Amino acid sequence: MAEASGRGRKAPDQLVFLLALVPYLLEQRVVDVATAAEHFDVDEKTIRDAVTLIATSGLPGETGTYQANDLFDIDWGSFEDDDVIVIVHHVAIDDTPRLSAREAAALIAGLQYLSASPESAGSAHLQTLLAKLNAGASAEPSRLAVEESETDAALALARSAVADGRQLEFDYRNALGVAGRRRVDPLRIASLGVDWYLQAYCHTREDVRSFRVDRMSGLVVSDEPIGDHSERALPEVGYQGSVSDQDVVVDVSPDALPLIADYLADAEREEIDGRFRVRLRVAHFHGLKRLVSGLPGLVTVVAPAEAQYVVAEWAAAGLAAYGEPERSGASEASEADEH
């Protein structure tokens, strides 16, 4: 209890304690010493000493001296006679920066999105924070509504299946565009960057697979319980190599090299014009589309020609969607694989 009594409290700790105590007292308006001590898990003497110190603190005026209104003041009668703390005058607190209405609205929209997730539904902490953001902004925040996407709905069903230990059926379209119905034993929900994945035992493949939630549709939670997969090790979400993988040679910016570390086939690298030439292992060349688009201008496909062609065709299709004239030939491939 040495820390709580204040005798063993270091100066930085004491300052942090005071910085937390003052807003608490202002928010409570009237609070007895015992309640404040219980809230901060300290003894009552520590609270009394801190309040006495607060009453001698303030902000000097333009002359550099303290005048009557430059110090905190408390109701000494209530404090000394009834052990009740009431701050009747405070300084500097109102000068703290406040969120603009637009900033508060953006944070509120984000919290509303979090509140819609199963694990955060009904969270008292989120509701308290929402109330503080509404009250603490410099102006009334704009009212925003966060619309649920198809991915959000699929993610909620997948979470439900994992929590209940029930089999899940869904249509799945892989990166090659091949679709099929899957029946799985859902094991874990994980994220990688902005993408959500369901890790599950696939009854079709008879092995554990990772499914991107935004590629799943027509989800149905079955009444069938999942099997016992306790002895199966779940791989980290990300690229998982296999014997059917294909090699691709790329030139990559040094800053982006750590971002493709999971795809590196070996540790060999050659520096060419300020970039590293490395060899990647990918499940199929179509997977390069997403890798290259996620690192615009930082990755250039060098070989094989088929991989260049796949990325170039994909880039040309994207360009055509903006009304640009289509181009063809080797020059297109050499330019498009850089985007």
TrEMBL record:
Q: Which residues form the PafC HTH domain?
A: 13-134
Determine the domain of life of the protein's source. Answer: Bacteria
Domain called WCX: residue spans: 246-317
User: What start-end ranges are recorded for coiled-coil regions in this protein?
Assistant: none
The root-end lineage is: Bacteria, Bacillati, Actinomycetota, Actinomycetes, Micrococcales
InterPro entries in alphabetical order: CBASS_pafABC_assoc_protein (IPR051534), PafC-like (IPR028349), PafC_HTH (IPR043839), WCX_dom (IPR057727), WYL_dom (IPR026881)
WYL domain: residues covered: 154-219
Name recorded for this polypeptide? WYL domain-containing protein
